[in-house]
Amino acid sequence: MATTTDPRPLTGEPVALDLLNTRWMKEGELQDLFAGAAGLTRTEGLAVWLASNGLDRRFRADAPTLVHLLTAREALARAVADPADPAALTLVDAVLDHGRIRLRVGPGGTTEEPDFTDRTWGPAWTTARNLVDLLDKGADRIHKCASDTCVLHFFDTSRNGTRRWCSMAACGNRAKAARHYARSRDH
Q1: DSSP readout, 67-83?
Q2: Helix (H) or strand (E) holding 181
Q3: Are the C-beta atoms of residues 60 and 37 closer than 8 Å to each other?
């Protein structure tokens, strides 16, 4: 593997949005963690993503898992772009059809355990399930970065829900610098 570190500029978002963030812009070029970004093969990119989200102990980085995850990424992208689009939600439902939550009763009380029709659907189902949770918390808190040159998504946890940038250190700082330059140029 060329690298084991995650090359993406934004990580740590909820797993559904982290899946969308496997595509990002670098020097004006769209990068895809699952299509050769940073010199990684497709399955190496999948292995990096699984590890980044703590899923590498439960799921394998193999071709069937990647195919299902790419299916989920497209479904989630459409649902995030328009959470009221019935066709997009049907695509998410199609991913959710490959798993369910099984309740277990034990000495410590009840627990929820995911159960999959096919384990290779596990990561895809996990992301779709997470999107359902995020939509329940507030679809209006799921944002695409306000930068015209950025494709990253984030879940806005700010108190008043007005976060605009994937990262103040990157896109937010560039926007502030551009506004400052425009003001100084006008004077």
Answers
A1: HHHHHHHHHHHHHHH-T
A2: helix 173-186
A3: no
Spatial CB neighbours of 20, under 8 Å, sequence gap ≥ 6: 73, 76, 77, 80, 152, 153
Instruction: Name the phi and psi angles at 20, rounded to 5.
Output: -60, -35
pLDDT digits (tens, 9 = 90+) for 43-65: 999 999 999 999 999 999 999 99
> What is the torsion angle, in degrees rounded to the nearest 10, for the CA atoms of residue 80, residue 85, residue 90 and residue 92?
10
The whole-angstrom separation of Cα 119 and Cα 125 is 10
Quickly list H helices, 23-149: 42-52, 63-81, 86-96, 122-138
Distances in whole angstroms, Cα of residue 87 to Cα of each of 20, 75, 90, 95: 18, 9, 5, 13
More confident of the two residues 172 and 25: 25
The pair of three-digit structure tokens given for residue 137, joined into one six-digit string: 């918390």
- Quick: pLDDT tens for 98-145: 999 999 999 999 999 999 999 999 999 999 999 999 999 999 999 999
Cβ atoms of 163 and 156 within 8 Å: the answer is: yes
- How many whole angstroms separate alpha carbon 13 and alpha carbon 145? 13
Single-letter amino acid, residue 156: D
How far apart are the C-alpha atoms of 96 and 79, rounded to whole Å?
13
